[in-house]
UniProtKB/TrEMBL annotation:
Binding site for [4Fe-4S] cluster: 220, 223
Cross-referenced PANTHER family: CYTOSOLIC FE-S CLUSTER ASSEMBLY FACTOR NUBP2 (PTHR23264:SF19), NUCLEOTIDE-BINDING PROTEIN NBP35 YEAST -RELATED (PTHR23264)
GO molecular function, one term: metal ion binding
Record-listed ATP binding positions: 15-22
Subcellular location: Cytoplasm
Family indicated by similarity: Belongs to the Mrp/NBP35 ATP-binding proteins family. NUBP2/CFD1 subfamily.
Alphabetized UniProt keyword annotations: 4Fe-4S, ATP-binding, Cytoplasm, Iron, Iron-sulfur, Metal-binding, Nucleotide-binding
Record protein name field: Cytosolic Fe-S cluster assembly factor CFD1
Biological process, per Gene Ontology: iron-sulfur cluster assembly
Domain of life: Eukaryota
Source organism phylogeny: Eukaryota, Fungi, Dikarya, Ascomycota, Pezizomycotina
Provenance organism: Paraphaeosphaeria minitans
Length: 323
């Protein structure tokens, strides 16, 4: 059973579409990988497989081996070269040097790597979706993984039922199923849908590792004022109501949108070099009035606000999985 190689399986769920499940999944995967974990991402959003785009590897294709599919490698295990931080140089002291961070391997499986054409619509009835999800769980030859993150479609559909039926069938997979990260946006209409997802977790016995509130305010890069575009605080209240951990709020980050639009892989914290792309230093970090972190940054190749939050989230999820 290919899942035997996996230590922890984490589901990323939401009752509502477009709240940022795939964004949180890919950023969480990158952050865990940066902590040296080997990570796999399984995209079971069959009608909207967007994970390849978030990783900037839309053109890739899975390879077929005798025992099943070989997932697409986002990057291999590597040791990042030493980099110089500009902070010291800017204030007249010696530049700081950061030495060789070990980055864990990251691989990915999605229907997007199998469809003949990227724009093809997937118009499948329930049984075909059920069979596809089962095949993703039984026929992908994952390498040894610390974490498999499963990005799901919104709601509680055929894909979710098939996922849990297949996972819960084997005792080993039940033990491996660490729980779910539930993503919401703050406004009431999203919350009421996401509550259904929490009820789904209760009914199916899936542990909720925590709730993430995404798009919680836009922090102005000019004046650090936080504008609560989609209301405020709904995710935290919902987590309290359901007695599950609240993992925190991620503000809207225009740099993140830009990177996804341009097909650039949003990636690691400052000063690191991945895939030959040097990431530019930030100028400073300040706390906005609402306590959301905002970075004033020069030209930058990663989404700083999003990236830093998810790096913290990765630590939090790992601690909860271990508990
Ligand atoms: N914190 C954020 N700041 C800025 N843009 C964001 C943020 N979170 C998500 N986005 C953007 O919002 C859009 C929707 O995000 P995403 O695809 O991750 O949502 P989803 O819940 O996975 O959607 P679906 O329901 O289609 O699976 C994307 O264009 C993404 O780049
Ligand atoms: S909040 Fe920021 S973006 Fe909005 S008007 Fe003020 S300075 Fe401009």
């Amino acid at each position: 059973m290919p899942l035997e190689n996996i230590s922890h399986i984490v589901l990323v769920l939401s009752g509502k579409g477009g709240v940022g499940k795939s964004s949180i999944t890919t950023q969480l995967a990158l952050a865990l990988s940066l902590q040296g974990k080997s990570v796999g991402v399984l995209d079971i959003d069959l009608t909207g497989p967007s994970i390849p785009r978030f990783f900037g590897i839309e053109q890739s294709r899975v390879k077929q081996a005798p025992g099943g599919w070989i997932p697409v490698e986002v990057h291999a295990e590597q040791t990042l070269p030493a980099t110089q931080h500009a902070d010291g140089a800017a204030n007249g002291t010696a530049p700081q040097q950061s030495y060789g961070t070990r980055v864990g391997a990251l691989s990915c499986m999605s229907l997007g790597f199998i469809l003949p054409n990227r724009g093809d619509a997937v118009i499948w009835r329930g049984p075909k979706k059920t069979a596809m999800v089962r095949q993703f769980l039984t026929d992908v030859l994952w390498p040894e993984l610390d974490f498999l993150l499963v990005d799901t479609p919104p709601g509680t559909s055929d894909e979710h039922i098939s996922l849990l039926e297949t996972l819960l069938k084997t005792t080993a997979a039940t033990a491996q199923l660490a729980g779910a990260v539930v993503v919401t946006t703050p406004q009431a209409i999203a919350i009421s849908d996401v509550k259904k997802e929490l009820n789904f977790c209760t009914k199916t016995g899936v542990r909720v590792l925590g709730v993430v509130e995404n798009m919680a305010g836009f922090v102005c890069p000019n004046c650090s004022e936080c504008c609560n575009v989609f209301s405020k605080g709904g995710g935290e209240v919902m987590a309290k109501d359901f007695n599950v951990p609240f993992l925190g709020s991620v503000p809207i980050d225009p740099a993140f949108v830009m990177l996804v639009e341009e097909g650039v892989r949003p990636t690691y914290p400052k000063g690191t070099v991945v895939g030959g792309k040097a990431l530019v230093e930030r100028e400073e970090s300040v706390e906005s009035k609402d306590g959301l972190l905002v970075d004033k940054y020069r030209e930058c190749s990663l989404a700083p606000v999003f990236g830093e939050f998810v790096a913290r989230l990765a630590g939090d999820v790992e601690a909860r999985v271990a508990a």
